[in-house]
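Support request, please re-run this one:
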Amino acid sequence: MNEQSHIAIVPEEPRGWPEIEYATQKAVARLGNLATHVDQLASKFPLNSSPGLRSQMRRAALDALTNVACGLEATSAHDYRQLMLRSRCALSELDTFARLGGKSSVITPTEVSHLALLVQQADHAVRLGLQECQPLLRGAA
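Re-run finished. Output below.
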């Protein structure tokens, strides 16, 4: 067996990928902060009231973070885009759950507003990654 048979062919890095990676890392940082904040807020809910809301808020925050983190490992622009869109859906769910939590008076209007701001900032970071991905998607079409 010659040595060349063991050499793996590495595809060329897609054009624009460093910008996508930077945007994604920024989104991961924002979403990590958001998940920590959501966990702290969700712990304020009494165990006997709104257990579903507590777990759904935590799940939505973690889903948003997980999808973006998986985007760092995406092998195509299409896969990356799908993961970012799933993250945005989870952020929308989280925003809805936070508003429901505010109506239950377990979390204060100020806490709901702060959480809404964090969700908005995280969503903005995810959208930046999607914008960086668009030229790659157009090039693949």
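The CA atoms of residues 10 and 58 lie 38 Å apart. The first helix runs from residue 17 to 42.
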